[in-house]
Each structure stands twice: as C-alpha cells, then as structure tokens.
Design brief:
CATH superfamily: Metal-dependent hydrolases
Strand content: 15-25%
Structural class: alpha/beta
Distance between the termini: 11 Å
Radius of gyration: 17 Å
Strand order of the largest sheet: 6-7-8-9-10
Length: 275
C-alpha cells in the first residue's frame, strides 16, 4: 500500500488558480499512474500572500477558510481514497468557533490542519496560530507545517512548538526545504516523540539517514503532488526503486510508505478501508 500524505488541489475559483494548474482530476491521474492508494490533500487556494517586486501582497481574502473547507469537502466527498487537511489562514482570518465546528462535523474526512508560514508571512510560533494549536491538542489533530530555510519557515520554529505542546503531533513538511545539510533538522526530528517529517522534495538518501539513526517511526511519504504535472512521481522514483528500497528493512519501508501516515493522521479510526 502507498499513501501520499502531502498533496494539493484547487477546490475553488481562487485567484491563484490563474497560475497553478492543480486539479482534482490531475491528482487522481497522478495517483493512478503510480498506483498510490490514498492521499491526504490540502486546498492550495488558501494561500494568503503572493510575492511582488516590493515584497508581498495579501490575496484570496474573499475566500474564507470555512468556504474553502466546504469546497474541498464537496469535491472530494465521493472519493474514498482522499482525506483532507485544511490549509489554514491565520494571518488574514484566524481561528473561529465556526471553523472548529465544521472540522469536528467532518472528522471522518478531515484529519488535521496545515500551515504554510511562508505564504502566511507568519512563523508557526506566532500568537495568531496558538488558538489552532489549542484546538488540535483538544481533539487530537496533527499539524502539518511547511518547513524551509526562509525567515518564516525554519524547522527550528516547528521544533520549538512541538516541544512546547508535547500532546500535539507536528509534521515538518520537507524536513527543511532547500537545506544543504539536514543534520540539525534531523537531530530535532529524532529528539521529540511528537515531531515527524514528510518526504516532499526530500532526497531518499536523507530518508535512509533518518531511518538508520533510529527514526523509522518518524518519516512519512509525501510529495506535493501533483504540482509537477502528470509525471510528478518521476521526482520520487527512488522511493519505488527496489535497489534503493533494499537499503532499509521491509518493516521500515512499510512504515515510510503508509503505516506512519495511518498512525500520525489517525486514518484507521474513522474508516474500514485501512487495516
């Protein structure tokens, strides 16, 4: 079985649809091509900012978190292979009672929360994000955080919050995107029981390092599909290459490709599909 725990679609008519071709049909085609069984999908149309020559500007403010979640639920409702991770808008909106209610009403489909510090122009340590974390803690929802080397997204900020909130599962997307040396990020990942990472754009050799250092329970297959089009998984060929796979045990490989996702995102509690 394969689960891609980091995918995207555009579920509405948001402004960034003009420059991102990320459709549900494309995601399904990409998954079918590589025989990926399930995916956890976020709504990329919740991006809060766009870079400009002078810095950045806020966009998509007419599309609320709640309306975008409803769109995502609607377009995925007949697809049992897709679970969702709403992309949150902490800078332009913040947490609300209504947001919590729609999440709780759809727990069979909604499996956590996603934050993108760079596109929100907020570190995960921001006070604006704390109410979301309290909610996640109360209802056992994992939190996926885009991690990269820019000023907002560094892995150390997610590590700091995971240390501060030990009852919440935090996932460092990409481990730390655009990093040349993952040693520090890997050390942080392995230090905390509630801290995980996904493999989006992460070299397979670094995944092997994590597993060999004792982190086979800490790393989750995810790819950012389908932003590279129908051949998106070509970038992840090593993850399906038997010569690469044999560098780790079958147990570690199964954890990487689906079992860790089932555990971290609680996929086996609300559906009979995953055993």
């Amino acid at each position: 079985m394969f689960i891609d725990a980091h995918t995207h679609i555009i579920a509405s008519n948001a402004e960034n649809q003009n420059f991102l071709n990320v459709s549900l049909s494309l995601l399904c085609s990409v998954m079918n091509k590589e025989e990926v069984d399930y995916a956890i999908v976020s709504n990329i149309d919740a991006i809060e900012t766009r870079d400009t020559e002078c810095g950045y500007e806020f966009i998509n403010q007419e599309n609320s978190q709640i309306s975008l979640i409803k769109s995502l639920l609607e377009v995925t409702k007949n697809n049992e292979k897709l679970f969702i991770l709403p992309w949150c808008k902490p800078n332009t909106e913040g947490f609300s009672k209504e947001l919590g209610e729609i999440i709780l009403k759809n727990r069979d489909k909604i499996k956590g929360l996603k934050f993108h510090p760079y596109h929100s122009k907020l570190k995960i340590t921001s006070d604006k994000i704390v109410p979301y974390i309290y909610f996640a803690e109360k209802y056992n929802l994992p939190i996926l955080v885009h991690c990269a080397i820019d000023e907002y997204s560094q892995a150390k900020y997610t590590y700091e919050m995971a240390k501060k909130y030990p009852k919440v599962k935090f996932i460092m997307a990409h481990l730390e995107l655009m990093q040349d040396d993952f040693t520090t990020a890997r050390r942080m990942l392995l230090e905390l029981d509630n801290l995980y990472a996904d493999t989006a754009w992460l070299p397979f050799e670094e995944v092997i390092n994590i597993i060999k250092d004792g982190g086979e329970d800490k790393i989750i297959f995810g790819t950012d599909a389908p932003i590279n089009g129908i051949d998106h998984y070509e970038k992840y060929r090593d993850y399906f290459d038997i010569k690469k796979i044999t560098k780790i045990s079958n147990t570690a490989y199964n954890k990487l490709m689906y079992k860790n996702a089932i555990y971290v995102y609680n996929l086996n509690k609300k559906t009979h599909l995953l055993k």
